[in-house]
């Protein structure tokens, strides 16, 4: 039995990934949503309340998990607060974005580290917008982009730290996906990204890499 966590699992990429992984009865998934609610009901799935902007909520989430050993963590939960054509830095909006996309994600991961089995895999869902190699770079969505860039660096740093423990850490660029964040005209479906995540979990890959549709991409 493999056990793992998928944050932000109540919709979009998180929901599609939970749905795909729990089709396998030998995989047990703990999901999260801000209110603890979920539309999926399966014997090998449970959803817990988690607000990544709140340290107490993160502690309560980890406490509820207990001493269960983990084989994977998909850090999927994230927010985009600014408008698509916004380029001005708004400090409070920047702080709120980093609280969820970076600080909360890192705090949760760090608190879960003692629970990981050898050969476990941590996948941080980041973005092309968080890369320095983005082909169509512009000045829009600065808060979101900076948070994902910093999360990519955390991937590389954590991968180095966990080398001796044989734990793989990856970043994954889902591409432009049809979600509440990505909009209705996006070319990729959440289930497409879910298969990317499953393939990454099922393969023995080098740690500290940035992935897009099954291939290593530039940072």
Structural notes for this entry:
The chain is of the alpha/beta class and 219 residues long. The protein has a single domain, classed as Rossmann fold (3-Layer(aba) Sandwich). 35% of the residues lie in helices and 20% in strands. It is built from five helices and eight strands. An eight-stranded mixed β-sheet has the order 3-2-1-4-5-6-7-8, sandwiched between helices. Strand 6, helix 5 and strand 7 form a beta-alpha-beta unit. The mean pLDDT is 95.
Key phrases:
alpha/beta; 8-stranded mixed beta sheet; 219 residues; globular; Rossmann fold; single chain
Distance between the termini: 34 Å
Backbone structural class: alpha/beta
Number of individual domains: 1
Major sheet size, sense and barrel closure: 8 strands, mixed
- Beta strands, count: 8
Query: Whole-number average pLDDT?
Result: 95
- Rg computed from alpha carbons, rounded to a whole number of angstroms: 16 Å
CATH architectural arrangement: 3-Layer(aba) Sandwich
Note the quaternary state here. Answer: single chain
* CATH domain fold name: Rossmann fold
- What percentage of residues falls in helices of 4 or more residues? 25-40%
Q: Indicate the proportion of strand residues.
A: 15-25%
What is the ordering of alpha helices and beta strands?
Answer: EHEEHEHEHEHEE
Q: How do the strands of the widest beta sheet line up side by side?
A: 3-2-1-4-5-6-7-8
Contiguous low-pLDDT stretches (5 residues minimum) are none
According to CATH, what is the class? Alpha Beta
CATH superfamily, please? NAD(P)-binding Rossmann-like Domain
């Amino acid at each position: 039995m493999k056990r793992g966590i998928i944050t932000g699992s109540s919709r979009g990429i998180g929901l599609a990934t939970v749905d795909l992984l729990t089709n396998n009865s030998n995989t047990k998934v703990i999901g999260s949503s801000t209110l603890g609610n979920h539309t999926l009901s399966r014997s090998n799935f449970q959803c817990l309340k988690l607000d990544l902007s709140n340290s107490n909520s993160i502690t309560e989430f980890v406490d509820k998990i207990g001493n269960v050993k983990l084989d994977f963590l998909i850090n999927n939960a994230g927010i985009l607060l600014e408008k698509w054509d916004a380029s001005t830095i708004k400090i409070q909006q920047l702080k709120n974005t980093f609280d969820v996309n970076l600080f909360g994600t890192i705090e949760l991961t760090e608190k879960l580290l003692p629970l990981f089995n050898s050969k476990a895999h941590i996948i941080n869902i980041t973005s092309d917008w968080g890369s320095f190699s983005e082909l169509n770079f512009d000045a829009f969505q600065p808060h979101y982009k900076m948070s994902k860039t910093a999360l990519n660096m955390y991937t590389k740093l954590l991968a180095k730290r966990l080398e001796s423990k044989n734990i793989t850490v990856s970043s994954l660029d889902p591409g432009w996906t049809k979600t509440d964040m990505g909009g209705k005209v996006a070319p990729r479906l959440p289930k497409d990204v879910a298969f990317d995540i499953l393939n990454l979990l099922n393969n023995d890959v080098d740690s500290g890499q940035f992935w897009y549709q099954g291939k290593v991409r530039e940072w």
